[in-house]
Every structure is written in structure tokens, then in C-alpha cells.
Amino acid sequence: MPWSRIKPDTNEPEYLSQDMHGSATHAAVTSEPFLQHSPGIRRISYAEATNEALSQALSLDPRVFVMGQGVDDPSGMFGATRNLHLTYGRERVFDTPLAETALSGIAVGAALGGMRPVYFHNRPDFLLLAMDQLVNHAAKWHYMFGGAVSVPLVFWACVGRGWGSAAQHSQALQGLFMHVPGLKLIMPSTCFDAKGLMLSAIKDNNPVLIIDHRMNFKQRGIVPEEPYTVPIGKGVIRRNGRDVTVVAVSHLVTEAFVAAQELAGEGIEAEVIDPRTLRPLDEELILESVARTGRLVVCDTGWKTGGVTAEIAAMVAEKGFGSLKAPIARVANPDLPTPAGYTLEQAYYIGKDDIRRAIIRTVRGQEA
Amino acid sequence: MSLTAEAKRGLLRTMLRIRRVQERIESEYLKDEMKTPVHLYIGQEAIASGVCATLRTRDAINSNHRSHGHYLAKGGDLKAMMAELFCRSTGCSKGYGGSMHLVDVEHGNMGTSAIVGGGIPIGTGLGLAFQMQKLDRVSVVFFGDGAADEGTLYESLNYAMLKKLPVVYVMENNGWAVCSPTLTRQCGDNVFHKGAPDRLFSAKIDGNDPELVYETTFQAVERARKGEGPSFIECTTYRILGHAGCVAQDPKGYRDPAEIEAWRERCPVCAYQAKLVSEGVVDAQALAAAEAEIKAEIDAAFAFARQSPLPTAADLHQNLFCE
Prior knowledge:
The complex is a heterodimer of chains A (368) and B (323). By secondary structure, chain A is α/β, with parallel strands linked by helices. Helices cover 35% and strands 20% of the residues of chain A. Chain A is built from 14 helices and 17 strands. Chain A is globular, with a radius of gyration of 20 Å. The two termini of chain A are 35 Å apart. About 4% of the residues of chain A have low confidence. Chain B has a five-stranded parallel β-sheet, with helices on both faces. Chain B has a two-stranded antiparallel sheet with strand order 4-5. In chain B, helix 1 packs across helix 10. Chain B has ten helices and seven strands. The model of chain B has no long low-confidence stretch (mean pLDDT 95). Chain B has one domain: Rossmann fold. Chains A and B meet through helix 4, helix 6 and helix 7 of A and helix 5 and helix 6 of B.
């Protein structure tokens, strides 16, 4: 069975919406009748949203270019870069050798030379080959030279969960990158943010890493046609609730939202927060929510130990301990390489039901 | 092409300046005022001097941990360099970089990596940026034989050849990576043979001969300016002092003293000075004047560094991100 049939294309949930600055407003914008009366606001796929951001950046700024292995092939990086080379030419949208280390350094050099590269790395697993340039060079270049130089570049990679992708094509390595000062780290969860955060990343004068997720690419969402930016470092509340704060990243925002909707019928109101950016992290938004709810569940697509859930839990324990009425719960992948077989995958990956159980345990102090 | 007398005097002057600066750092290092690991360039001066004499201000260089010579030859300000070695706010990197991380954007020195081989792709990327913007600028990368152990060199060369980038790769083969000789690390000592001759202008030359370095680099830079692609120049030379620090800190016993002595006999600065004197291009009086000028400049730079303010705790959190 091909990957595309594993999960059907689905519309994004009816989240609380947000304006472009990330503050929550009520859901009117996402209702379909509104769409019919608003030219320029459409429901499009996640790949189309990303593609549109790149196209607009290429069109608006001659310094922008898109590179990466296969960006100009027919599949076009899951659709994210598809056909851009036809519009902007292979001088600005070009295939690269697989040499991730040097090509990452070449992107750094091009940024130092006045360009704004967007380097598509396909899978985060391959970013490990680029670690030297990403961590030793790009992340340090501004600081190490006392601000004399800057490296405006975007690295992008997409977590390849499912379909037997196994241990080397499915790693969600954001925990490693969140550790590094000097990198901005973005994990979008909606089509709106995929476009707006990509445009912000390209506009930013620093190295920005976007870690996307295969599951996100099955979504369709509301996206304005004109260029816009979503601020880096601003999270958003996807659902209001008084009993528990659930911080979830990437495609787990949907899983957390659906779990929260289900639990509303059982007397638990969970607030769902999508940080959107892991570094800088919108600590204020999380702490303010925990101050109201007194409980926290943190969900991440990566491993548990030393990862994103550990960092967010530690941050809240350090700065919001007084608000906590229950132990913090973490929902993350087990500390194991990803297995290939689908029965093993099923046991490995966390999702809606794990989040649901964690919420109940946190609120009621016992399993459902 | 032959060098004018003035150009020759310029080469010697650059070499002499680098040498005297290195000697002063070496002689004062044990005072422990320069609290940063220095990698001295003594013995290799002809390379930075010869290469940079072919470049324009807007051309870029990318250097490595042993970067003092490149920084100075490309036009870098000595006061800003010494202040950096003294870790002062007035340093070229405001005290955040130290000896291994010099920068000088005005003269095309876009920052120095101390990860061996790390600067090679960055210099290659600068070439890509120049080509994409159709700028008449060339990027030169300096690295040692140690970096020729790293994959980044071959990945970068392949890409530069593929895209015909205006990049000149200058390898300073000084025979040693810390305490490991080249032939314990590589299967031959002709790294330049690894380039594809039809796609890469490559040469192996005596890196202690500044005029030869100049002439070879000049050809490479001309090729790059004409869009004919990259070049690879292997310069044979020798690291007369230890890997890092001053003479007293160099571990003894890993090199044959006779080897060091033989290369001291071939000192590029002394040899070039003698050559220009015998050609009548410089005389004793001119040399004495140059030495006096250089000494005064070094005195002033050390005084400037010592008198400059140190960064404070308030500076710690500055400059992580660019606005």
C-alpha cells in the first residue's frame, strides 16, 4: 500500500483561529460560509501552502534561492517545491549533490555572500550529516564574530513517520537542535503557519531550521493568498480549557485537539497550546496557561529523554512550580530506534489515545 | 607576468610584518595576557602574502585556526587583531572570537572557522553567491594538509567544478597536523593530484617562494574572474613552531630536530629578503626603515590592546541573533 493511502487528506480541525500576530480570536474565520465571501482566502493543501510561501519569497526577493537534493524533480519535495524551477529557473531552484556537509557550508557561505538560501534536506536524519555546518558554523557565526556577520538561511526537513520508514528515515530530532543556541527552530502544524512561518524564516537574518512532518502534509487548511508572516517565537492557543494545559507540537496538535474535544463530553476541559516555534519558545504563553489550569501535559513527536518534552516540563517546573496541582505528564516516543514493521510501528508511535490517557491521569490522578 | 620592484617590496613588507607580529606574540605569550590559543604562522608567510597580493579588497578569503597571516595579508587592522588576542571589546570580534576567529568584513574576511575543513565549503558558498549575483569577485580558501583529510574538501571541490565557481583553494601543506605527519594520515603527499585536471586548474608549488605563489595564484584568480572555474594550489611549506602556543609549550620529540633545522635554513622571509637585496630592489637602509615602522606599529597595537576595555558580563547575552 503506498504511503498516500495510509492517512487520507483531511481538513484541519476547527481551531480557535489567530490573527497574523498569533493572538487567539474566535473561530468565525474558519467556518466554510465565511470562505465563500472572502476572496483570497481558500482551503489548500499543506504542500500548496509551503509552495506558495516559497514562490512568493522567490518572486519578492531576488536574494532568495531554493536548493536541495530533488527540489526540481517531479515529486518536488512532497509537493513543497514542485514546479518552482519552471517559474524561477534552475539558477534559483536547483538540485544538489548529496554531500550534505559541504552543501550546508555552501549555503552558509552563500548567505554570508548576500544571498538567502532555503536548503531542503528532505529528512531530519540527513541533517546529522550537516551537523558540523549547522551547529559549529551557522549557529555561531553571528555571536563568534561579535555581530560583524550574519547568516540568513533556512534549513528544512520533514519527519518521515510511518510506512515502514524505519530507524533512519523517521527520526524527529528537534530535541537535538533545540539544545543549540543560535538556531531558531520552527515546527508548524497548520497550513496557515506553514506558509507564514516559512516567509518569516526566509525574512529572518539568522539560521532557521524548520522541522515539518509527513502527517502535516495530509492536511488541508485555510490560507490567505497574499504574502504574510507569522511571528517566530509566538505560540498560539488552539483550544481554550480550564482544567489542564496540553502543549503539543507539529501534527500532535491535531491529536491533542481531538483528544480534548472528546474529553469535553466527559467533563474535562483541556487547553491546547501549539508553540509553533521551539526556539525561541513562547514561555509566557505556556506559563500563563498553566497558571490558570494548574496542570500540564507535554506532547512531542521525538524521543522522551533529553528532548522537547523534558525541556518544556523543566521550564514549567522551574518557573511555574507554584501553579502546579499535579505532576507534569509527558507524551513522547519511547527511547528506541523506530521499528519498520507496522505492528511494531503501531506500538511505537504515540497519538490521540496516549494524550487522552495522560490528560485524564493528570486531571483525575488516575487512569481512565 | 613579472612583478614590479614595488610589488616585490610590497610582498616582502607583508611577509616581514606577519613574521614580526608572530614573533612578538610568541615572545609575550607566557605573560598570560593573551588568554586564547594562538596558532603561529612562522615559516608560512610567503603563502598568505603571495596569494593576497593578487586579490582586490572586495574579494573574499576564508581562513582557519592558523589565520593571523591571512588576516593581515588581506588588509586586516593589526590593532583590532591584537585587541582580539587580548580578548578586548575593541577586537575585530569584540572579544567573542579570540585568536582562532578573526573577521574583517571590510576586506572580505567573512569569519574564520577553527573546525578543520569547516571553512572550505563556506568559501565555496561565497563563490556561489558571487556567481549568482554576477559580481566580479573571487573567493579564496586557505587550509592545511590536515583539512585535506576531511570530506568537505572533496565535496566542495566537486561542487565548485560542477558549477564553475570562482573559488581558489589554497592548501598549505606544512607537513603536520598537530603532531601527526602527513604520510601517517594520507596515502600520498600529492593532494593536488586528486583534482580532475580537465576541470580544475591545479598546481603543486614551493610555498616558500612568494613570487611563485603570487604568479600561480594570479593565474588562478584570472581564471576565476573569467568564469573558467576553480583552482587548487598546493603550497609546500613548513610549520617551524609547534601546533599551538609558544616555543616553550611545544611538546618535544615528535619531530626530528634536523627536519626543523633544515626548514629554518629555508626561512621564506630571510630568503626573500636576501633575494631582493641581491637584486638591488631593497637596500639595508630601506629594510631598517621598514623594520622600524613595523616595530612601531606592533608596539602601538599591543599598547592599544592592553589599554582597551574588556567585555563585561553585560555583553554576554549580546549578539546571539542578528536583528
